[in-house]
Structure formats: structure tokens, C-alpha cells
Amino acid sequence: MELTRNEEKIAEFEKRARKLVAQMTLEEKAFQMVNHAPAIERLGIKAYDWWNEALHGVARAGLATVFPQAVSLAATFDEDFIEEVADAISTEGRAKFNVQQKFDDTDIYKGLTFWSPNINIFRDPRWGRGHETFGEDPYLTSRLGVRFVEGLQGHDENYMKAAACAKHFAVHSGPEDLRHEFDAKASRQDMYETYLPAFKACVQEAKVEAVMGAYNRTNGEPCCGSKTLLTDILRKEWGFKGHVVSDCWAIKDFHGGHGVTAGPLESVALAVNNGCDINCGNLFVYVKEAVEKGMISEERVNEALVHLFTARMKLGLFDEKGKTPYDAIPYTAVDSGKMQELNLRAAEKCIVLLKNEGGLLPLDKSKIKTIGVIGPNANNRKALVGNYEGTASRYITISEGIQDYVGEEVRVLVSEGCHLYQDKISNLSEGNDRDSEIKAICEASDVVVMCLGLDAGLEGEEGDEGNQYASGDKPNLNLPGRQQEILEIAYACGKPVILVLLSGSALAVNWADEHIPAIIQGWYPGAQGGKAIARVLFGEKNPEGRMPVTFYRTTEELPEFTDYSMKGRTYRYMTREALYPFGYGLSYTNFTYTNAQVSADVIGTEGIIVKATVTNSGDKEGTETVQTYVKADRSGTPNAQLKGIKKVFLKPGESKEVSVKLPLSAFALYDENAVNKVEPGKYLVSIGGCQPESRSEKLMGQKTAVLSVAAKEQIIL
Length: 717
Fold this sequence. Notes:
This protein is α/β, with parallel strands linked by helices.
């Protein structure tokens, strides 16, 4: 078989890497297998730190465009746009790297190996790190994950722009405080149906350069030393060619937390022998001793190093300056006007309109004299950015965004309202210390914007500074502290109230859904977030975001946090009615669907094509998110699952035919033995602006077109 230009170049890099590794001593080899790899001057190898982050912008290394958090970007349901954002991130990454190299700065967070994206499935809304993910759905996560990787790595046939890393392989999604000792038990069916698809897509479609293991065990094996995950599935089943990195200090958990090894030497041997190539941490310095004691073969060490040096060569790090097309990217590309414009567009696209009773929104600036902006997230920068963030040159909070937007024409009265999670703002107060101010502002205002929710100090990774709850996980889905109380105070004042939620996860705002006329989910919308929210509030931008996660009504309806079975979890398996369903989101205009049809009544090996005509039947231009779902019409199967997405922009009165290709795999389900097959029988295919279920249709005010197709025989994929 003839090799492509890219394959030829990779083969050349591998040959160069093998030659380089052959010249190293065993001690040198060992030290190259930790994230802060030292220089080997005699071989012309510069020091390199593999640890860098780019979850939603280049992180932890100074100035960068701080895009909306990952779950926010997922709400765009727009894979083309996700690649555009990732490409911008890698442009800034290269710009920063070029000057860092110029000034011999090889510190942590200064490389081109970005440990992003996080493509774990957000299976439980209590998980603190869920806002790092693309949500709860394997299909959406796969599509966005692939395009994010492609945006970071670029499409040059000779060099990678940056190296992406799919993490955390494979089922990590909390609890955070147990992750160093926890065994996540998942059936083969759930593994292949839910936890593995996004990783497989990133490996096989996007050719992701790196995969990071998780802290926890999966079915008894520590993930960073799992033969099942790293050797049998990743390398053999999927054909992964890149390198595997441990999560940070995860190798010491083998003996210190999981108790599967007796000490550092055994832990290192278990990890290296089962496919881990590089250690974020320092335990792999034991590799030399482990080889000398016959616990690891030097051939395996050489293999790991070839993976690592091939990656560095694919980035152009061993070629003279100017050889890659990215060496000329100037530092001024960082935080440029073009980047800021893209960031604003990202923030606007991710906002979800959850409720708009009586058409309260958009607001008409000419009819408002005074607007009240109240709540702990009104002026909270931390609620803009989430975690794993860079440093923006300017942050625009909600109160600032509204003030900037209305200018001198409208008076804006601002109050913190209450502390984000404590019962008072001033420690010396008797409590409820802004209630009178809230009432005064509401009394003086024509409309009130309540800015509530969470920030990354309440939900995040274990060990993140400021996590107030259980190591970053949420104890429940309630608004923290006194937020519900001040919302009710504002409502009781009788003025129109708009609720803006900033959070990276589900909140059970049941009372608000019943009483507050307009509700917006703003997620963690990035440094331009306040400007974007203001533009949506006043109708300059029509909201188009969709829910990448389910908003549940109670914590009590959820299975145990430590239960990794998918039964009862996410829109695909839940049996109760959601507060706000996955895929849901309103617009300031209306979209209608007609002429829904399928290309065939019987599913063939090529799959089928679903078509419908989408019309903007309202009076404002807007973007519709056309969603296609498939349901196997037999007992014991998941609810209708998302299998296709198309974004379509329409002016008032405009119509377009939308066509969605559903491959044969869209109709296949895994059985308990992880065999993926299409069973004979009836399948329901829907096309519309939401899920084909009653709560979604009620909230959207429209029925979803559901069509029937059939499979005549069993087909094993």
C-alpha cells in the first residue's frame, strides 16, 4: 500500500527518533520519561516540559484569549466552530512558544503538547470537573472532540501545529475525593456504548497524538497501568500510534491509594509494561532501576521513547527554525482583535435561552429607564472563566457588559445581593446584609436581571484552590447559600425578573422555572461573557445554544454518585421528566419543520438520509440547531439518541432543506458482550429542534417529526 505524504513524514520521524534513542544511556532514557525532561546537550536535545493545558485557551502561562469553558462550547452544538476555536488556541500556543523558545524559557506550561480535550462523559451533574467536558452525550462529545483535536493539531502534511491529548482514559467522572483509590466498575456494554466512543473517534478519526490515563481504577485495573485499556483496546483494537501519558502523580496511587502494587518500583513497572510512555510526575526516574532488576525490558523503554521523540519531531522541535509553517507566527497574534472577535462570537453562540414567557426578552432599551443587576455573579470574573484558564487582558462581567451596552441612556443599579455561598457578605454582619439594597434597587428599576449560579471555586478538580464543597464536587443541585432567597425577594417586588445562571453544570431551579418569566443559561462564557450576555438580553444576538447536559429536578432521582452503570443516567437512560432536557434551547424567532422524509424505508449498509425543510416562521433572523435522533423500537434499549446535527442560519420567512446522513452505525447498539450490531426490527428516526420526547416538545411548543424505518436482518459491525 502506497503511503501518504503524512505517513512518509511520520515514518521518517520515527527512524530519526530510533537513531536518537539508541545513543542514550539508560539513565538518560529514564529521565526523558518524566514530564520535565532535562536537556541532553551532547545529543542536541533541549529541555522540554510536556505539561501544558489548552482546555478553552492556552492556560497557566500568562496572556491568552480565554474562550468559554468546554461545556459552554459544547452548547454551540457546532463542530465547525469548535475547530475554528481550537485552531485559534493553537495559533496562540505557537505564538507564545516561539517567544518562549527565543528566550530559552522551557518551564512548565511552555510546550506544544496540550493535555486537552477532556472527553470524559458528564454522567452525573454532581461531578466537579464536568464543566471541562463536552457534556453527557457520546455522539456530541465524539464530534466536538474530533474537531477540537483537528483544530489543535492542524492539517499540514508535514508537521503538527500542536499536539492534542484525549483525557482521561477511560471512565473518570467522579467522585473527585475518591479518585486516587476508587474502582469505577462499568459493564462492557456501558464501556463501549458510553465511555469509549469519544476516545475511539479521536484516535481513529482525528489521529490524536496523546492519550492520558485516569487516576481511578476501571474494573480493577489502575487506568494508567491498565493492560485492558492501554494495550488491548487503545493499541491493538484501535491502532493508536501516539504516546500515552499518566495523569499527574497517578503512578504513585498504584501503591499509595489503590494498593495494587507494593511500592514505586512495582508501580512504575506496571505502568510502563502496560503502555504508559511518560509520567506526569517523577516516579519514572525509577525506570533505570526497574530495567536493571529485570522488571521492565529496555526494548519497552526504547519503544516509549520513540513514541515521545517522534511526537517532538512531528512538532518540528528537532528541525531548524523556519522549517514548520508555524515558526513565523508572531507574539502579537495573542489576544489580537481577531481573537477577541472570535471569543465574543463563541460566548454568544453558547448562551441557552431556557424560558421566555410572554416574550419578555429581548429587552427594548428605548423603553427602559433603570435596570437592576443583582447577584453574586453580577460582577464575578471567576464565573466567566471556569478552570484550566489563561489570563485575559480584560474581563467583561455581566454588570459591566450591561453598563457598556446601555451607556448613558439607561441607569444601571448593581448589587452583589448575597455571598455566592455563605449566609452573609460582611463577617461582622448579622446576616441578610444586602436584602434592603435588593428591595431598593427592585423598587427603582423597570426590569431586574438576577445573576446567580456557581463558579469554579464551587465546582472543579480536587485540590483546586477554593473548592468549597466535597473536593470540587457538588453536594446537590441547589443554588448555593442565600441565592434562592434573594431571587424570591426580587420576584416579590413585582418587577419583571430575568434570571441569568452562570454555572458549568445542572442546577435544579424548579422554583424559578415556575415563577421567573425569563431564564438564560450562560455557562462559564469566557472573558467576553458579559458583553455577549448583554447583546443577547437586548436582542442584538439571537440565542442559539442547546443544552449539552440534562438539568434534573432533584438530586434524589439520581443513582449513587459512585455507581458507574448508565441506568437512569443522562437523557439516554433516564425515566423521569427533565427540568430542561438535553438538546433544548429557545430562540427569539420560531422554526417550523415540513416535508420530513427518509431516503429509504429499509436500512441498508450505506445507512439512510433524513431530510426536512426548515423555515424561519418568526420575525427575527436566527440559527437553528437541527437534531436527528434514533430509537430502536424494542424494549431494553436506550431512549432516542442523538445521531446527527446541522446548523442552519435563516432570515425571517426563509426556508432551507436540511439533509442528515445517518450511517449504518447510527442504528447499532452494543450488547452485554460489547458486540456492536443492528438488530432486525423497527427504528424511529426524528428530525427537529429538540429531542422527540414530551418535555422537550412542550417547552419548544412544537412536535418533532418521527419517521419509521426497518432493518430486515441482523448486521454485526
